[in-house]
Input
Amino acid sequence: MNFDEFWQQFPRKVSRRMAQKAWDKMTLADQELAMETLPNHIRYWKLKDTSSEFIPHASTWLNQARFEDELDMSEAQPKKPKLPWYSTEQLTMEKGREVGINPLPGEDFGQFRSRIAKRIGELA
Output
């Protein structure tokens, strides 16, 4: 097996000498397995939209035998942005319960939100 082929394919190009040392200590069977599984790991990192800073260094990937990892190839779920408590009536009601305030009879949500905000200030 050829380290240069591995290095050419590995997506994060840092610490080449350490990666070469890790490669040189590996058995031929592990080198073959690393080369065989690397494309799948690259697909995984792309599927999960992994930022390059979170892709392990090649030396780490080799030394920890990460090529043996089981990968969850399901698509990443988009994260829902968290809405502020005052953005919907439901969230306003939840926040009111959280701080111990219920709406008063005849009170609109603007007034209720004002009382909640005041209570939050008192608790801070």
About this structure: Residues 89 and 109 are 7 Å apart (CA to CA). The chain has a mean pLDDT of 92. The radius of gyration is 26 Å.
